[in-house]
Amino acid sequence: MTRASSPRTDAANQTRRMRTYALANHKGGSGKTTTAIHLAGALAARGRRVLLIDLDPQAHATLGLSCEAEDSPCALEVLTGEVRALDALHAAPGGITLIPGHARLAEFEERAARELGAEGALRRALAPLAERFDDCLLDCPPRADGLLTANAIRACDTVLLTVETGAFALQGALKAQEIVDETLAAARHAPELRVVATMFDRRLRIAREVLIAMQARFGERLFDTAIRSSARLREAAGAGVPIQLLAPRSSAAQDFAALADELALSPVGA
Ligand SMILES: Nc1ncnc2c1ncn2[C@@H]1O[C@H](COP(=O)(O)OP(=O)(O)OP(=O)(O)O)[C@@H](O)[C@H]1O
Ligand SMILES: [Mg+2]
Predict the structure, then answer these.
(1) Residue 173 C-alpha to ligand 1 middle, in angstroms?
(2) Tell me: the pLDDT tens digits for 106-149?
(3) In-domain check, residue 2
(4) Which of 1, 26, 30, 33 to mutate to test the pocket of ligand 1 (most atoms within 8 A of CB)?
């Protein structure tokens, strides 16, 4: 759903520097992974070279793209420098390239905790890929104050805060915003913060109220596009493909195309 229509932008006209987005929130289940997968699909469908990195030990983005990293490198080995990012790339459905996640990512917090500059590991690891991809989406775990999310925030141009339009959602988003601000202050690095409303159902009063509160709180930082609730997205998760392959004409595919349009039109974060 969009509040205002956006003109389509030709991918070829965009700057060819990789734009990196961290999907984050302090509240679990806010639509981070769903947004990461289908926004990646929408960007790939318009011809952009898209890399998705699954930084969540739950590995839902990896499963949602029918991949696994049991016997191959995952984001952990990229973060620790055991494997080059280039050697951890998987071809995923919908033209997306994936660096998979795995349960062993949970070890990162402990392994890197005492290392100097551990928050900058992902940024350093991704530098060699800057010419290879147009967009890089980082799917973060539910905790915004952990080392994995800190790495994503340091590595990105834009933090995409996904906020479910349901009860208590705004509190989670504000907490995440606080953590993002703290991380940025410590890093002296300034990605922009943008907010996307998810699981929107206009029939529900709570959803309409939360959307209005989000507009008041985040202003220009809120995308016009709200991702509507859609059973098709749950089906896509089960099928392990982006919505653009499962149901290209669905409202969900339209929403992610509109979000991709908005991203294409926004300047890259500082
Ligand atoms: N727009 C939507 N319509 C319907 N269901 C959705 C939508 N967005 C997400 N969901 C469902 O809500 C659940 C949580 O979504 P998702 O996994 O994307 O959240 P998350 O923020 O990544 O969660 P976590 O914090 O556990 O990583 C999933 O079952 C997903 O299929
Ligand atoms: Mg997730």
Answers:
(1) 15
(2) 999 888 877 888 999 999 999 999 999 999 999 999 988 899 99
(3) no
(4) 33
Domain assignment present for 230:
yes
142 lines ligand 1 (CB under 6 A): yes
Full domain range(s) for residue 115: 16-265
How many angstroms separate the alpha carbon of residue 29 from the centre of ligand 1? 5
pTM flag (> 0.90): yes
Q: Report if residue 162 sits inside a domain.
A: yes
What is the CB neighbour count within 10 angstroms for residue 108?
21
Q: Calculate how far, in angstroms, residue 237's C-alpha sits from the geometric centre of ligand 1.
A: 9
CB burial of residue 84 (10 Å; 0-12, 13-18, 19+): middle
**pLDDT tier at 181, thresholds 50, 70, 90:** confident
For atom 31 of ligand 1, which residue has the closest CA?
Answer: 234
For residue 270, is it within any domain?
A: no
How far is residue 138's CA from residue 223's CA, in Å, rounded to a whole number? 18
Domain count, the chain: 1
CATH of residue 170: 3.40.50.300
Dihedral of CA 234/240/243/249: which sign? negative
- The answer to whether the CB of 183 is under 6 A from ligand 1 is no
pLDDT 10s digits, 184-228: 777 667 788 999 999 999 999 999 999 998 999 889 999 999 999
Element (H, E) at 41: helix 32-45
